[in-house]
Amino acid sequence: QVQLVESGGDLVQPGGSLRLSCAASGTIFSLDAMGWYRQAPGKQRELVATITSDGRTNYADSVKGRFTISRGGAKNTVYLQMNSLKPEDTAVYYCNAHRITMEPNKRNDYDYWGQGTQVTVSS
Predict the structure, then answer these.
(1) pLDDT of residue 100
(2) If you ran DSSP here, which 8-state letter would residue 2 be given?
(3) 117-121 and 91-103 strand pairing
(4) Residue 29 DSSP symbol
(5) Are 41 and 87 in contact (CB under 8 A)?
(6) Is 109 helix (H, G, I), strand (E, B) or coil?
(7) Are 117 and 9 in contact (CB under 8 A)?
(8) How far apart (Å, rounded) are the C-alpha atoms in residues 81 and 70?
(9) Contacts of 47 (CB under 8 A, 6+ apart)
């Protein structure tokens, strides 16, 4: 099993910056991707950014140019640098880890989630 712990959420003013961190532990095996998702009040959880084990990144259109995702050297940590924050970025941010295992005639995909960290952007 994989456990994910997020940190770094806070109350910030519009235009400010935050850096979120996530550390994975447990029976990790190999994590093929890690990422960040967020859920605002009354909205569905949405993808913010992901990064694969070989460094490929993907961002939601709403955060492109403002957020940067990166992984630690051990590749069991992931960070989200958030700049130029907007009130619309207010949400609970969840760390995600994705693992793929191969068995004969079968591919298995697993997702693991952290408990979330609150980001509030407000004056």
Answers:
(1) 86
(2) E
(3) antiparallel
(4) S
(5) no
(6) strand
(7) yes
(8) 8
(9) 35, 37, 58, 60
Tokens of 75: 């590749």
C-alpha distances in Å from residue 13, one per residue of 54, 80, 114: 34, 17, 25
First to last CA, the chain: 40
pLDDT per residue over 12-69, tens digit each?
Answer: 999 999 999 999 887 666 788 999 999 999 999 999 999 998 899 999 999 999 999 9
CA distance 102 to 37: 26
| Backbone φ, ψ for residue 99 (5° rounding) | -130, 135
Which 3 state secondary structure label does DSSP give 40?
Answer: coil
User: So what's the pLDDT on residue 121?
Assistant: 98
Rounded to an integer, what distance in angstroms lies between the CA atom of residue 15 and that of residue 78? 23
Q: Which residues contact 8 (CB under 8 A, 6 or more apart)?
A: 18, 19, 20, 21, 80, 117
Confidence (pLDDT) at 27: 65
In tens, the pLDDT along 81-112 reads: 999 999 999 999 999 999 888 889 999 999 99
